Amino acid sequence: MRRDVFQAIADPTRRAILALLAVQTLTVSGIAEHFNVTRPAVSKHLKILAECGLVSVTQHGRERYCEAKLKKLDEVSNWVERYREMWEQRLDRLEIYLAELQANDKSNGNTI
């Protein structure tokens, strides 16, 4: 099952796992040491992250090494950027409107 990258970052534990893996490659046990959850629970989170394309897991001997693939987070960044631009434009228009109201009040002799 292919999951959406937004599903991956919706969970705080998965975000914390990504933060750990962003600075270093770790084994599943190495990741589990940072959390108060069982290793199988960490494995489930890693499975979801891998299905989203945010983590790759490679087997070396008996250990499974996890590496962050943060390029997929560009989808989130692009989505946020689109709404940031929209809200900035709306706030700019509001600022212009308020300045016009103030100018009209001053020209009518009113003070705020």
Compact overview of the structure:
With 112 residues, the chain is of the alpha+beta class. The protein contains five helices and three strands, in the order ααβααββα.
List keywords for this structure.
three-stranded antiparallel beta sheet, 112 residues, alpha+beta, 3 strands
Low-confidence stretches: none
Mean pLDDT: 93
Radius of gyration, in Å, reads 23 Å
Largest sheet, strands/sense/barrel: 3 strands, antiparallel
Strand content: 5-15%
Q: Shape from CA axes? A: rod-shaped
Structural class: alpha+beta
Spatial arrangement of strands, main beta sheet: 1-3-2
Question: Helix fraction?
Answer: 55-70%
Kindly, what is the distance between the CA atoms of the first and last residues, rounded to a whole number of angstroms?
60 Å
| Total beta strands | 3
Separate helix tally = 5
Order of helices and strands: HHEHHEEH
Describe the structure.
This protein is α+β, with helices and mostly antiparallel strands and 112 residues long. Strands 1-3-2 form a 3-stranded antiparallel β-sheet. 62% of the residues lie in helices and 12% in strands. It starts with a helix and ends in a 5-residue tail after the last helix.
